Amino acid sequence: MKDRLSQRWADVLLALALLTRLSLRARSLPDRGASAAWAWPLAGVAVGGLSALVAALSLAAGLPATVAAALALAAQALVTGAMHEDGLADTADGLWGGWTRERRLEIMKDSRTGSYGVAALMLVGLVRWSALAAALESGSAVLIAAAVLSRVPMVVLMAWLPNARGAGLSQSLGRPDGRQAWLAVLVALAVALLVSGPAALILALAAASAALALGMVARAKIGGQTGDILGASQQLSEAAVFVAAAALA
User: Fold this and answer.
1) Measuring CA to CA, how many Å separate 135 from each of 21, 80, 81, 177, 199?
2) Could you tell me if 220 and 109 are in contact, meaning their C-beta atoms sit under 8 angstroms apart?
3) DSSP string of 206-246?
4) Given its phi and psi angles, is residue 177 left (phi above 0), alpha (psi -120 to 50 degrees) or beta?
5) Under DSSP, is residue 163 helix (H, G, I), strand (E, B) or coil?
6) Over the stretch 193-223, which tens digit does the pLDDT of each residue have?
7) What's the N-to-C CA distance of the chain in angstroms?
8) 223: phi > 0 → left, psi -120 to 50 → alpha, else beta; which?
Protein backbone atom coordinates (compact mmCIF):
# COMPACT_ATOMS: atom_id res chain seq x y z
CA MET A 1 0.00 0.00 0.00
CA LYS A 2 2.80 2.42 0.87
CA ASP A 3 4.54 1.74 -2.43
CA ARG A 4 1.28 2.28 -4.30
CA LEU A 5 0.67 5.61 -2.59
CA SER A 6 4.27 6.66 -3.30
CA GLN A 7 3.77 5.85 -6.97
CA ARG A 8 0.53 7.83 -7.12
CA TRP A 9 2.25 10.83 -5.55
CA ALA A 10 5.10 10.47 -8.03
CA ASP A 11 2.53 10.53 -10.85
CA VAL A 12 1.15 13.81 -9.52
CA LEU A 13 4.64 15.32 -9.50
CA LEU A 14 5.22 14.06 -13.05
CA ALA A 15 1.93 15.66 -14.12
CA LEU A 16 3.02 18.98 -12.62
CA ALA A 17 6.39 18.73 -14.35
CA LEU A 18 4.79 18.02 -17.73
CA LEU A 19 1.88 20.47 -17.66
CA THR A 20 3.24 23.33 -15.55
CA ARG A 21 6.45 25.02 -14.57
CA LEU A 22 5.97 24.29 -10.88
CA SER A 23 7.61 20.95 -10.10
CA LEU A 24 11.40 20.58 -10.16
CA ARG A 25 11.55 17.52 -7.93
CA ALA A 26 9.86 15.38 -10.60
CA ARG A 27 12.94 15.60 -12.81
CA SER A 28 14.61 12.97 -10.62
CA LEU A 29 11.65 10.55 -10.90
CA PRO A 30 11.42 7.78 -13.52
CA ASP A 31 9.23 8.81 -16.45
CA ARG A 32 6.07 6.66 -16.51
CA GLY A 33 4.72 8.32 -19.64
CA ALA A 34 1.02 7.80 -20.25
CA SER A 35 0.73 5.63 -17.14
CA ALA A 36 0.79 8.86 -15.12
CA ALA A 37 -1.84 10.56 -17.30
CA TRP A 38 -4.59 9.85 -14.75
CA ALA A 39 -2.98 12.58 -12.60
CA TRP A 40 -3.15 15.31 -15.23
CA PRO A 41 -6.42 16.70 -13.80
CA LEU A 42 -4.63 17.11 -10.47
CA ALA A 43 -2.12 19.40 -12.18
CA GLY A 44 -5.22 21.44 -12.92
CA VAL A 45 -5.84 21.78 -9.18
CA ALA A 46 -2.55 23.66 -8.88
CA VAL A 47 -3.18 25.82 -11.95
CA GLY A 48 -6.79 26.50 -11.08
CA GLY A 49 -6.03 27.06 -7.42
CA LEU A 50 -3.42 29.72 -8.13
CA SER A 51 -5.58 31.50 -10.69
CA ALA A 52 -8.59 31.31 -8.35
CA LEU A 53 -6.50 32.94 -5.64
CA VAL A 54 -5.51 35.72 -8.02
CA ALA A 55 -9.16 36.26 -8.97
CA ALA A 56 -10.35 36.23 -5.36
CA LEU A 57 -7.69 38.73 -4.24
CA SER A 58 -8.48 40.97 -7.22
CA LEU A 59 -12.18 40.99 -6.41
CA ALA A 60 -11.44 41.57 -2.72
CA ALA A 61 -9.32 44.57 -3.70
CA GLY A 62 -12.34 46.09 -5.41
CA LEU A 63 -11.32 45.40 -8.99
CA PRO A 64 -14.14 44.68 -11.45
CA ALA A 65 -14.77 41.10 -12.53
CA THR A 66 -13.45 41.82 -16.02
CA VAL A 67 -10.04 42.79 -14.63
CA ALA A 68 -10.04 39.89 -12.16
CA ALA A 69 -10.76 37.47 -15.02
CA ALA A 70 -7.93 38.88 -17.11
CA LEU A 71 -5.45 38.62 -14.24
CA ALA A 72 -6.55 35.06 -13.46
CA LEU A 73 -6.04 33.97 -17.08
CA ALA A 74 -2.67 35.70 -17.17
CA ALA A 75 -1.65 33.76 -14.06
CA GLN A 76 -2.68 30.53 -15.77
CA ALA A 77 -0.57 31.31 -18.82
CA LEU A 78 2.45 32.05 -16.64
CA VAL A 79 2.08 28.85 -14.62
CA THR A 80 1.71 26.64 -17.71
CA GLY A 81 4.14 28.50 -19.95
CA ALA A 82 1.20 29.08 -22.34
CA MET A 83 1.76 25.58 -23.71
CA HIS A 84 -1.94 24.94 -24.29
CA GLU A 85 -2.40 28.30 -26.02
CA ASP A 86 0.48 27.35 -28.32
CA GLY A 87 -1.27 24.06 -29.11
CA LEU A 88 -4.49 25.90 -29.91
CA ALA A 89 -2.74 28.22 -32.36
CA ASP A 90 -0.89 25.40 -34.10
CA THR A 91 -4.06 23.31 -34.30
CA ALA A 92 -6.05 26.11 -35.93
CA ASP A 93 -3.28 26.82 -38.42
CA GLY A 94 -2.84 23.16 -39.33
CA LEU A 95 -6.43 21.93 -39.49
CA TRP A 96 -7.65 24.87 -41.55
CA GLY A 97 -4.49 26.00 -43.30
CA GLY A 98 -3.71 22.82 -45.25
CA TRP A 99 -5.54 20.82 -47.91
CA THR A 100 -3.96 17.42 -47.26
CA ARG A 101 -3.20 15.42 -44.13
CA GLU A 102 0.54 15.71 -44.71
CA ARG A 103 0.40 19.47 -45.25
CA ARG A 104 -1.75 19.98 -42.15
CA LEU A 105 0.73 18.09 -39.99
CA GLU A 106 3.60 20.04 -41.55
CA ILE A 107 1.92 23.35 -40.73
CA MET A 108 1.21 22.26 -37.17
CA LYS A 109 4.89 21.45 -36.70
CA ASP A 110 5.94 24.92 -37.91
CA SER A 111 6.78 27.20 -34.97
CA ARG A 112 5.41 30.24 -36.79
CA THR A 113 1.84 31.34 -36.08
CA GLY A 114 -0.44 32.07 -39.03
CA SER A 115 -3.68 33.95 -39.41
CA TYR A 116 -5.86 31.01 -38.30
CA GLY A 117 -3.76 30.61 -35.18
CA VAL A 118 -3.94 34.29 -34.32
CA ALA A 119 -7.69 34.32 -34.87
CA ALA A 120 -8.14 31.25 -32.68
CA LEU A 121 -6.10 32.76 -29.85
CA MET A 122 -8.08 36.00 -30.05
CA LEU A 123 -11.55 34.45 -30.33
CA VAL A 124 -11.11 31.64 -27.81
CA GLY A 125 -9.30 34.03 -25.48
CA LEU A 126 -12.17 36.50 -25.75
CA VAL A 127 -14.70 33.78 -24.96
CA ARG A 128 -12.68 32.54 -21.98
CA TRP A 129 -12.22 36.04 -20.58
CA SER A 130 -15.79 37.31 -21.05
CA ALA A 131 -17.43 34.10 -19.84
CA LEU A 132 -15.12 33.88 -16.83
CA ALA A 133 -15.88 37.48 -15.91
CA ALA A 134 -19.59 36.61 -15.86
CA ALA A 135 -19.01 33.33 -14.01
CA LEU A 136 -17.02 35.06 -11.26
CA GLU A 137 -20.30 36.41 -9.94
CA SER A 138 -20.70 32.97 -8.36
CA GLY A 139 -17.15 32.91 -7.00
CA SER A 140 -13.66 32.04 -8.13
CA ALA A 141 -13.97 28.28 -7.51
CA VAL A 142 -15.08 27.91 -11.13
CA LEU A 143 -11.43 28.34 -12.10
CA ILE A 144 -10.51 25.18 -10.21
CA ALA A 145 -13.37 23.18 -11.71
CA ALA A 146 -12.51 24.39 -15.21
CA ALA A 147 -8.80 23.69 -14.84
CA VAL A 148 -9.46 20.16 -13.63
CA LEU A 149 -12.20 19.24 -16.10
CA SER A 150 -10.37 20.71 -19.10
CA ARG A 151 -7.36 18.43 -18.57
CA VAL A 152 -9.40 15.25 -18.81
CA PRO A 153 -9.92 15.55 -22.59
CA MET A 154 -6.17 15.36 -23.14
CA VAL A 155 -6.13 11.92 -21.51
CA VAL A 156 -9.30 10.71 -23.21
CA LEU A 157 -8.22 11.86 -26.68
CA MET A 158 -4.88 10.10 -26.26
CA ALA A 159 -6.69 6.89 -25.34
CA TRP A 160 -9.29 7.25 -28.10
CA LEU A 161 -7.24 8.41 -31.08
CA PRO A 162 -3.90 7.19 -32.43
CA ASN A 163 -1.01 9.60 -32.73
CA ALA A 164 -1.29 11.17 -36.17
CA ARG A 165 2.36 12.08 -36.61
CA GLY A 166 4.20 9.11 -35.13
CA ALA A 167 6.60 11.49 -33.39
CA GLY A 168 6.61 14.32 -30.86
CA LEU A 169 5.73 14.62 -27.19
CA SER A 170 2.36 12.90 -27.45
CA GLN A 171 3.92 9.92 -29.24
CA SER A 172 6.80 9.67 -26.75
CA LEU A 173 4.39 9.50 -23.82
CA GLY A 174 2.51 6.55 -25.30
CA ARG A 175 -1.23 5.95 -25.03
CA PRO A 176 -3.04 5.64 -21.71
CA ASP A 177 -5.32 2.65 -21.43
CA GLY A 178 -8.99 2.77 -20.58
CA ARG A 179 -8.32 2.49 -16.86
CA GLN A 180 -6.09 5.57 -16.86
CA ALA A 181 -8.67 7.54 -18.83
CA TRP A 182 -11.53 6.55 -16.56
CA LEU A 183 -9.48 7.30 -13.46
CA ALA A 184 -8.75 10.77 -14.83
CA VAL A 185 -12.48 11.29 -15.40
CA LEU A 186 -13.37 10.17 -11.87
CA VAL A 187 -10.64 12.26 -10.24
CA ALA A 188 -11.71 15.37 -12.14
CA LEU A 189 -15.40 14.84 -11.37
CA ALA A 190 -14.65 14.36 -7.67
CA VAL A 191 -12.70 17.62 -7.48
CA ALA A 192 -15.25 19.53 -9.56
CA LEU A 193 -18.13 18.27 -7.45
CA LEU A 194 -16.24 19.28 -4.32
CA VAL A 195 -15.73 22.88 -5.47
CA SER A 196 -18.84 23.45 -7.62
CA GLY A 197 -21.46 21.05 -6.31
CA PRO A 198 -24.01 19.41 -8.64
CA ALA A 199 -23.36 22.08 -11.28
CA ALA A 200 -20.08 20.23 -11.95
CA LEU A 201 -22.03 17.65 -13.97
CA ILE A 202 -23.19 20.33 -16.40
CA LEU A 203 -19.69 21.80 -16.56
CA ALA A 204 -18.27 18.35 -17.28
CA LEU A 205 -20.79 17.83 -20.09
CA ALA A 206 -19.77 21.16 -21.63
CA ALA A 207 -16.09 20.20 -21.51
CA ALA A 208 -16.79 16.77 -23.00
CA SER A 209 -18.85 18.24 -25.84
CA ALA A 210 -16.08 20.62 -26.88
CA ALA A 211 -13.46 17.86 -26.72
CA LEU A 212 -15.62 15.43 -28.69
CA ALA A 213 -16.15 18.00 -31.45
CA LEU A 214 -12.41 18.66 -31.70
CA GLY A 215 -11.61 14.94 -31.64
CA MET A 216 -13.98 14.24 -34.52
CA VAL A 217 -12.51 17.06 -36.60
CA ALA A 218 -8.95 15.93 -35.84
CA ARG A 219 -9.75 12.34 -36.80
CA ALA A 220 -11.31 13.47 -40.07
CA LYS A 221 -8.53 15.89 -41.03
CA ILE A 222 -5.32 14.26 -39.77
CA GLY A 223 -6.36 10.77 -38.69
CA GLY A 224 -5.71 11.18 -34.97
CA GLN A 225 -4.26 13.43 -32.30
CA THR A 226 -1.01 15.26 -31.68
CA GLY A 227 0.36 17.25 -28.77
CA ASP A 228 -1.09 20.38 -30.36
CA ILE A 229 -4.54 18.79 -30.58
CA LEU A 230 -4.31 17.89 -26.90
CA GLY A 231 -3.38 21.47 -25.99
CA ALA A 232 -6.25 22.80 -28.08
CA SER A 233 -8.65 20.42 -26.33
CA GLN A 234 -7.72 21.95 -23.00
CA GLN A 235 -8.35 25.49 -24.22
CA LEU A 236 -11.66 24.70 -25.94
CA SER A 237 -12.91 22.60 -23.03
CA GLU A 238 -12.05 25.31 -20.54
CA ALA A 239 -13.84 27.90 -22.67
CA ALA A 240 -16.91 25.64 -22.77
CA VAL A 241 -16.83 25.25 -18.97
CA PHE A 242 -16.64 29.01 -18.47
CA VAL A 243 -19.57 29.54 -20.85
CA ALA A 244 -21.64 26.94 -19.01
CA ALA A 245 -20.71 28.46 -15.65
CA ALA A 246 -21.67 31.93 -16.89
CA ALA A 247 -25.06 30.58 -17.99
CA LEU A 248 -25.59 29.11 -14.54
CA ALA A 249 -24.40 32.18 -12.62
Assistant:
1) 27, 22, 24, 34, 12
2) no
3) HHHHHHHHHHHHHHHHHSSB-HHHHHHHHHHHHHHHHHHHH
4) beta
5) strand
6) 999 999 999 999 999 999 999 999 999 999 9
7) 42
8) left
